[in-house]
Write a structure and sequence with these properties.
The chain is an alpha/beta fold and about 290 residues long. The protein is built from 9 helices and 14 strands.
């Protein structure tokens, strides 16, 4: 039982023959992920990295049974790539592309309503179930198999948290990088819910940042769920000046509820173990799991 991706995931790479797609597909294949092919319009019928290239996602679904896609398509075309994957029946669509226009993502969000698929990202590091499948750009060697789930808006803090958990002699069930854009597919709450409901996951690390309501929504859901699985939480950006976009397009403080202090207060009130520094994540996880 794993969340989102596992050894049976049949993965295709959209933007397969481009430099980013090629580099990360090689890394994913080397990790042991089940990459069954890729899509580059106009290059169908070729082999790339010894895998078949298709002109459309639909062909990849029909010919190699693809059910998971990772997207390395340039920002101007990425929204179309997401909608094409959804339309072709891909169940898990992981979008790495950064800089997709917000207007395009609004179209995507509306298009995906009622569709039987899950979008992770965009502007995210992907998803990894250690030892089974890496569908993303994260350094696979950092992640070891275990019982701690990770949900993060930040790529680098995903790796940092995983590294700390592993150094405490623990490991990761699945790490989900949800992305830092204003409009993303899977929210913090939805990702946390997947891990809380996963029988192999005994604790969840939730890494958020200033801006938006995602962490508060997740915390309130957690409290209402009555779950006894512990969540360890961290909010990045406490020292950021108000009203300034910081790195991630979604990390801009709109009102008083968007600040790190406000989010941490809500999280604590909902029973989450909040740490003040990313350096404390691993220790806190070990302490909580005892």
């Amino acid at each position: 039982m794993s969340v989102l991706v596992n050894k049976d995931s049949k993965i295709i790479v959209q933007g397969f023959t481009g430099s980013e797609g090629t580099f990360h597909a090689e890394q994913m294949i080397a990790y042991g992920s089940n990459v069954v092919g890729g899509v580059t319009p106009g290059k169908g019928g070729q082999l790339h990295l010894e895998k078949p290239v298709f002109n459309t996602v639909e062909q990849a679904v029909n010919e190699v049974g693809a059910n998971t896609s990772i997207i390395f398509v340039p920002p101007a075309f990425a929204a179309d790539a997401i909608m094409e994957a959804a339309n072709a029946g891909i169940k898990v669509i992981i979008t790495i592309t950064e800089g997709i226009p917000v207007a395009d993502m609004i179209k995507v969000a509306n298009y995906l309503k009622g569709k039987d698929c899950r979008l992770i990202g965009p502007n995210c590091p992907g998803v990894i179930t250690p030892g089974e499948a890496k569908v993303g750009i994260m350094p696979g060697f950092v992640f070891k198999r275990g019982t701690v789930g990770v949900v993060s808006k930040s790529g680098t803090l995903t790796y940092e948290a995983a590294d700390q958990v592993v150094k405490q002699g623990l490991g990761i069930t699945t790490a989900i990088g949800i992305g830092g854009d204003p409009i993303i597919g899977t929210t913090t709450k939805e990702a946390v819910e997947l891990l809380i409901n996963d029988p192999e996951t005994e604790a969840v690390v939730m890494i958020g940042e200033i801006g938006g309501q995602l962490e508060a929504d997740a915390a309130l859901w957690y409290k209402a769920s009555g779950s006894k699985k512990p969540i360890i939480g961290f909010i990045a950006g406490e020292t950021a000046p108000a009203g300034r976009t910081m790195g991630h397009a979604g990390a801009i403080v709109g009102g008083s509820d968007d600040t790190a202090q406000a989010k941490k207060k809500i999280m604590k009130e909902c029973g989450i173990h909040v740490v003040d520094s990313p350096a404390e994540i691993g220790k806190k996880v070990a302490e909580v799991l005892g």
